[in-house]
């Protein structure tokens, strides 16, 4: 890791490049470490679907999506030392008119997970996107992750710019974590109107009937123009 003279993390020795075959496990761990709170909300049996099981599921899904569903992943990698990955931008063009060339099946959801609710949640993301764009092709941001020591350095914006370039002029769509909504709003995204009326997408445990807190809601967002803001 490089640091400036005042001790802060520097971007001068960080490269952004396509994910390599040997990077899948590290990328999947970062996805798990950052977003496990979402999947965990759909667990019915923690013994059957513990952290180890959820990490394996995330890893299998990253492998499947990159190999068979055209998920593009760019990594931010330190040049020095062990070239540690410190950020990820993962995105995917969604074209409803183009049938998939792959017949491979996605990884099976683990036992102990509320599969019906989990799959309905994923389908609801597409529903919100189609409320905005219809069947028009778009580019979905799957994950944008920056490790803690690089947050606030501008690395997130660099990784977001990789997503915009990958969209190649297509409209943009994502589902934001609770803490990232203001970041995306600053760069031109809006919460999907229907999602705002619905009060966000609830990731609370199924049997928890108390009103969801702010940290238990994620937000579908869109930006029609990929121009830089």
Automatic annotation (TrEMBL):
A GO term, aspect molecular function: acyltransferase activity, transferring groups other than amino-acyl groups
Alphabetical list of InterPro entries matching this protein: Acyl_CoA_acyltransferase (IPR016181), GNAT_dom (IPR000182), Trichothecene_AcTrans (IPR052523)
Coiled coil: none
Residues of the N-acetyltransferase domain: 71-206
Gene3D superfamilies: 3.40.630.30
Protein name: N-acetyltransferase domain-containing protein
Organism this protein belongs to: Acaromyces ingoldii
Phylogenetic placement of the source organism: Eukaryota, Fungi, Dikarya, Basidiomycota, Ustilaginomycotina
């Amino acid at each position: 890791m490089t640091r400036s003279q005042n001790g802060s993390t520097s971007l001068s020795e960080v490269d952004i490049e396509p994910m390599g075959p040997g990077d899948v496990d590290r990328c999947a761990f970062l996805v798990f470490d950052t977003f496990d709170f979402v999947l965990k909300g759909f667990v019915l049996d923690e013994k059957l679907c513990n952290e180890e099981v959820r990490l394996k599921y995330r890893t299998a899904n990253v492998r499947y999506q990159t190999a068979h569903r055209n998920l593009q992943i760019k990594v931010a990698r330190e040049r020095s030392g062990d070239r540690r990955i410190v950020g990820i931008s993962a995105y995917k063009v969604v074209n409803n008119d183009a049938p998939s060339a792959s017949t491979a099946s996605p990884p099976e959801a683990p036992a102990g997970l509320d599969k019906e609710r989990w799959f309905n949640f994923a389908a609801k993301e597409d529903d919100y996107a189609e409320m905005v764009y219809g069947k028009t092709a778009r580019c979905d941001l799957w994950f944008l992750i920056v490790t803690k020591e690089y947050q606030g350095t501008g690395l997130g914006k660099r990784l977001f710019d990789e997503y915009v370039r990958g969209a190649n002029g297509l409209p943009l769509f994502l589902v934001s974590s609770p803490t990232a909504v203001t970041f995306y709003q600053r760069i031109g995204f809006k919460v999907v109107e229907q999602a705002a009326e619905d009060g966000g997408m609830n990731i609370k445990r199924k049997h928890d009937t108390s009103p969801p807190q702010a940290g238990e809601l994620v937000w579908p967002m869109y930006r029609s123009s990929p121009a830089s803001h």
